[in-house]
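TauD/TfdA family dioxygenase
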Amino acid sequence: MMKITPSGESLGARIEGIDLSQPLSDEDQEAIKQALGRYGVVSFPNQNLEAEDLKTFSSRFGTLEINVANAYQEPGHPEVMILSNIVVDGKPLGLADAGQDWHTDMSYSKEMAFANVLYGIEIPRRNGEPLGCTEFCNMRQAYLDLPEELKTKLEGRTATHDFNKFWEAMRRERGSKRPPLTPEQRAKKPPVSHPIFMNHPITGEKVLYCNPGYAEQIDGMDKAESDEILAFLFKHQLQDKYRYRHRWTEHDVLMWDNFGTIHNAVADYTPEEHRLIKRCQVMADQVMAEAAAAA
């Protein structure tokens, strides 16, 4: 029987008593979806998954993305991205610097993402302590705590998000081997606009949907004013009181909601401290359609 234990922090819950390599019942799928809406981040310990299992579980929640810029995909399963700093015969096994700064996945895309599903296979450790944790911030609470005058000023406004902003930031990181995006890759992911405040498709509650990784301009606003407000929003949403940190253990599955959280992968391990994680990105088509049908 599935058991959900809240972390007691701003975000997070642990879900036990379920084997994700087995078919997921409709009841369990709905319980997991509601837990994501409520807690933002859920972990499933002690899983034993093949790439096909990870893909099958993830696909119950929406269409899976195939990343246009990622060459590190599971053979035969392009929906499964490999995140790793391991090098075999001089060739990287996976994308080593993915997500190392605060962002919301797919906010740069017209078709937004609902959830990430990551499976930890090899976790770096030092003196027995796990490295490479994943951090999150609570965007529901960040919205609630905004000054009322700013809520009023930004209500109904949109911001432009650009894939290349984050990509170039990652290229500037020490040791990054990312090449620039090709013109073809940029054409597939042009800048897009999204509401700064959004109703969460599961809970209906307002969230702050504007992250440091991709958001670069409040539409229709003078750039100086836009820069000032975005700087305030980015500082506000990263306060310690909104944060939650997942410390990885081998065979964890970690799933999070991209509407109600932003996240950051902490790169506190060396190339000799190996990390191997496999990941699926669940698009928001299913949850958005369900929210529209319920409205």
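thats it. The longest strand covers residues 113-122. The radius of gyration is 19 Å. bye
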